[in-house]
Amino acid sequence: MIMKKCVMVVMLLLGIEIQLIAQISWEQVVPGVWKGVVGTPENYSLLKAAGVAPKLDGFNRLPEMTLPALAFEIGGNVQDGKTALYIPLQPKEQLYGFGLNFQTIHQRGKVLNLHVDHYGGKDNGRTHAPVPFYISSQGYGILVNSARYLTVYAGSGIKKDSPNAEKAKDRNTDKTWTAQPYSDAVSILVSAPGVEIYLFAGPAPMDVIRRYNLLCGGGALPPRWGLGFTQRTPTLYTSEQVENDVEEFERHGYPLDFIGLEPGWQSKAYPCTLEWDSVRYPDPVGFLKRLMDKGIRINLWTNPYISPDSKLYKDMYPVSGSHTVWNGIVPDLANDKAKQLFQDKLIQEHIGIGVGGYKIDEVDGFDRWLWPDVATFPSGISAEQMRQTYGVLAQRTTNELFRKYNKRTYGLVRSSNAGANSFPYVLYNDYYNHSDFITALINSGYCGMLWTPEVRSSRSAEEWLRRFQTVVFSPMAMIDSWNSDTKPWTFPEVAGQVKEYALLRMQMMPYWYTEFARYHFDGIPPFRGMSLEPGFTLDGMITSELKEKSLENNPYLEAVTKEIKDQYMAGEYLLVAPLFTGQIERKVVLPTGNWYDFYTGAYVGNGETITVAPGLDRIPVYVKDGAIIPMMEPRLHAPKPGEKISLEIRHYGKADGTYRLYDDDGETFDYEKGMYSWREIRVSHDRNGKLKGYISKAEKGKPNSIGKITWRFMTDKF
After folding, report:
1. How far apart are CA 272 and CA 22, in angstroms?
2. For the chain: N or C, fewer Cβ within 10 A?
3. Residue 14: its pLDDT value, please?
């Protein structure tokens, strides 16, 4: 000990800088989740901005865990007013998460600047939801609860005293030389003199993400109508043109549940008045009522930046930020008075007369028009922190209003961050790469967000159909034709296939609704990457059974060690593998277990990579052995509260199966008062080996929307 002190004194005298990485003490906050503190954290954080309480009952359905040994190896220090965190990495460890990335699933080795922004085409951390949460293949997760910009070295950078450092190599002669040598740690720099860090235990990868979602209030549970189809109309449409669109959908036989109005519904936009244009929409109350009578809700585009021509401008001016956006003032939504003024305006103009939701645009970034980091806000929140959380504040502000009216909503938002998991909003952007949209959909499941691979326009009938087939298996089935005015039937040569998939989306609503209920109550992402499946582990390795097989005899072993970013799980049972324009065939990696074709029930494989060429009419969708998929009759609108629906319950494969079907009124928050039910569905073999189906009885006094039931055993004919 004396020798160590002497060495340190000598180093200080010589001007050699010493960085001490202090061990963190941990406090359990909910089962399987611990909080540590480094330095003095700021009062404002991501979780505080969201203001959501943990969904405690969901933790009771997760395995009990003790503090992982890793906790004692995590360290941090404060220097020059900034906080550095250190989390060790194992040699074969892979990392997933760090927000909404579009091109990569594996994040180890990346350097990311987590910064709310539009997406500029590169996974560099500047994105719509730069969530500082990641999952490790070792079965733990980390959340850094800071509303500051963060720099993440996700296995990049090597300390000189690292016991795992590789030996230096000669680039001239050694072909194994690499510009990025092995790094054994995640280092995170926070521009604040302290921070909270949360550690999530598994043991399974899915358990990690479940704990994270439940800590943040559980996942969003949209109304049933939110899972139907939505169409966004051109910017300057009038109320008459919107109503004509609704009639046209009905006449052509395509489903539609809500219409999105773009900026032209307002008297002025960019910045916004938040007031109806009296020429294009002379009678908003009558307009909304006529559409509601037809089962159609209205979703309004807006951004929060207030025009000088708005009646709200004068009162909002003193409680807005120091800088403008498009010469409109920025309400300080972290200030109680500004928030109340904004909410009062939305009630008066929109929600109070029947508007069903919002598309909250431009709360993400682009430095040339958003407020600069030198801006100030009356709440005292810095411009940097406001940028990191403004999308979260906008979601929270509007969601509170719908809760006040006891009406669920489902909308769109341009930015989000940690803590907003339970808010009923789906992320979107102006980027339009189909394959990258699928990667984003996968990554959204790692960061507690929802993402829509929307359909806007297409250069060909093939592209239109391929995009449409994908959006059917996504959180929001959106046709965003504000610029192109494209309709589902715009390409006559594929209109029949488009309608078939649109109606399939509606048929599957009992399944989708149940999967979102599992997201809400248990934190299970409804759309997620293959690495969260039991047949995989997060680092791309696989079950012990397959590890025993040689690579030569099992090409699947090689496939799962690679990044899989073009196929995903949709709910408990479905594997979706989209096809993109120009693709005739594709490879699909099947996890362990028997898998069956969703459309036919035919067996397709087990723990292997298959090559499929389904033709233009289909995208590959496969189902687990024993899967039960509840489906309703094809219809043009979501069921109304209390309406009975007939169910066709499909079973796939040879194994017995079980499924818990969720039910509530589909529109209100009464489920939070216990007004919901789970109906157990079972399929098993009788004494003669024949499959039989069973569904539990409805509970007395609980919601029951199930009418006639028929059973369909999809694999029986094979």
Report:
1. 49
2. N
3. 38
Cα(285)–Cα(289) distance, integer angstroms: 6
Pairing status of strand 477-480 against strand 657-663: unpaired
pLDDT at 536: 64
Find where tokens 């073999």 sit: 685
Among candidates 66, 441, 540, 154, which has minimal Cα distance to 532? 540
Rounded to whole angstroms, the maximal C-alpha distance in the chain is: 88
Backbone angles phi, psi at 394, to 5 degrees: -65, -40
Cα–Cα distance, 717 to 702 (Å, whole number): 37
Residue 553's pLDDT is: 46
Is the CB of residue 332 less than 8 Å from the CB of residue 378?
yes
Contact between 258 and 296 (Cβ < 8 Å): yes
3-state secondary structure of 50: helix
Distance CA 442, CA 120 (A): 19
Each residue's pLDDT tens digit, 25-62: 999 999 999 999 999 999 999 999 999 999 999 999 99
DSSP 359-418: EE-S-S--TTTSPPTT---TT---HHHHHHHHHHHHHHHHHHHHHHTT----EEES---T
CB atoms within 10 A of CB 310: 22
List strand residue ranges (DSSP E) for 24-171, in order: 26-30, 33-39, 75-79, 82-88, 95-97, 110-116, 126-127, 133-136, 140-144, 150-154
* Cα separation, 639 vs 409, whole angstroms: 16
Question: In this predicted structure, what is the pLDDT of residue 368?
Answer: 87
* Rounded (10°) angle between helices 461-472 and 434-444: 10
Residue numbers in the chain where pLDDT is lower than 70: 1-21, 535-561
Q: Assess contact for 548 and 607: CB atoms under 8 A.
A: no
In angstroms, the Cα distances linking 589 to 186, 440, 532, 565, 566 are 30, 19, 14, 11, 10
